[in-house]
Amino acid sequence: MKIALPLHRGVISAHFSKAQQFMIYDTQLGELRRFINPAVRTSGCRGKAELLTQLAASGIDGVVVRHIGERMFIKLRQRNLAVWHCHQKTAPKELNLAELTTLNSEETRQSRRQQACRMGVSPNRLQPLSSQVELTQINGGKRIND
């Protein structure tokens, strides 16, 4: 399994898309690979789109987050990527994958309100994930918006 870890100063970043870099960890081979987060170099939606493209190209199965915006969470789930929640500031070598919990969309709604994308997409135009993807396989068979 390949897992993406957002890092800031050597620990899991407080916010997913603001991480300085990402570490891709292959749990089967024990290999590590890092890349600079394109979302910190490029402002707005373009940088986040580049980040999603780079993560998908890495062949990851999921990401570990401390905090993540609702729209980024939805985009990751639309790509069938698992999102695991790390509850505290942790260095990657101290991370116990068995202790991570699966994040649900209700937890992402507790963060600050999402800003409209400067590229013409309004949060009002987004459709809920449950209308686009069947979610019977995650969260114990419950749909995300339940």
UniProtKB/TrEMBL annotation:
Keywords, sorted A to Z: Nitrogen fixation
UniProt entry tagged with the keyword Transmembrane helix: no
Domain Dinitrogenase iron-molybdenum cofactor biosynthesis: from-to ranges: 10-88
InterPro entries: Di-Nase_FeMo-co_biosynth, DiNase_FeMo-co_biosyn_sf
Annotated Gene3D superfamilies: Dinitrogenase iron-molybdenum cofactor biosynthesis domain
SUPFAM superfamilies: Nitrogenase accessory factor-like
Any Pfam family: Nitro_FeMo-Co
Name by which UniProt lists this protein: Dinitrogenase iron-molybdenum cofactor biosynthesis domain-containing protein
Taxon lineage: Bacteria, Pseudomonadati, Pseudomonadota, Gammaproteobacteria, Vibrionales
